[in-house]
């Protein structure tokens, strides 16, 4: 009976660790994507500002682009916070205080076939 409990605990901890690790890799990817979105929106805002200064667009258009950029930056900060929580969880599992936790990129993760069939990026 004790052996079964130890095995169940081991499986549970391993599963939890794998889940946190995968979510950490996913958070890294989301941060990269969000960073790209912010850069693109900054370029759009810069061009809209030029249009506004030239009298080619109303102030409401400029403010709308500023609002979108602010929203993207807030979302970026949330992704950073999520990543920090996940890194803290990984450190707890590893009993480590290492600053840098080595990990793969999202593209290098091999998903089980069942998950691949149900996974639809962008949803």
Indicate the topology.
Layout: H1 2-53, H2 59-94, H3 113-118
Task: List the main descriptive attributes of the protein structure presented here.
123 residues; mainly alpha; 3 helices
Radius of gyration: 21 Å
Low-confidence spans:
none
Shape field: elongated
- The overall strand count is 0
Mean pLDDT: 88
What series of H and E elements makes up the topology?
HHH
Strand content: under 5%
What kind of oligomer do you see? single chain
Number of helical runs? 3
Helix content: over 70%
Number of domains: 1
Kindly name the structural category.
Answer: mainly alpha
Distance between the termini: 44 Å
Q: Strand count, sense and closure of the main sheet?
A: none
Kindly describe this structure:
This protein has 123 residues and is mainly α. The protein has one domain. Helices cover 76% and strands 0% of the residues. The chain is built from three helices and no strands. It has helices at residues 2-53, 59-94, 113-118. The longest helix is centred in the N-terminal third of the chain and has 52 residues, at 2-53. The protein is elongated. It starts with a helix and ends in a 5-residue tail after the last helix. The model has no long low-confidence stretch (mean pLDDT 88).
């Amino acid at each position: 009976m004790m052996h079964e409990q130890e095995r169940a605990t081991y499986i549970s901890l391993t599963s939890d660790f794998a889940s946190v690790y995968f979510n950490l890799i996913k958070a890294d990817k989301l941060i990269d994507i969000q960073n790209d979105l912010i850069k693109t929106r900054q370029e759009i805002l810069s061009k809209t500002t030029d249009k506004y200064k030239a009298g080619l667009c109303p102030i409401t258009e400029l403010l709308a682009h500023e609002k979108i950029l602010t929203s993207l930056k807030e979302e970026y900060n949330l992704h950073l916070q999520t990543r920090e929580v996940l890194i803290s969880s990984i450190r707890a599992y590893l009993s480590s205080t290492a600053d840098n936790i080595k990990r793969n990129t999202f593209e290098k993760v091999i998903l089980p076939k069942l998950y691949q069939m149900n996974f639809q990026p962008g949803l």
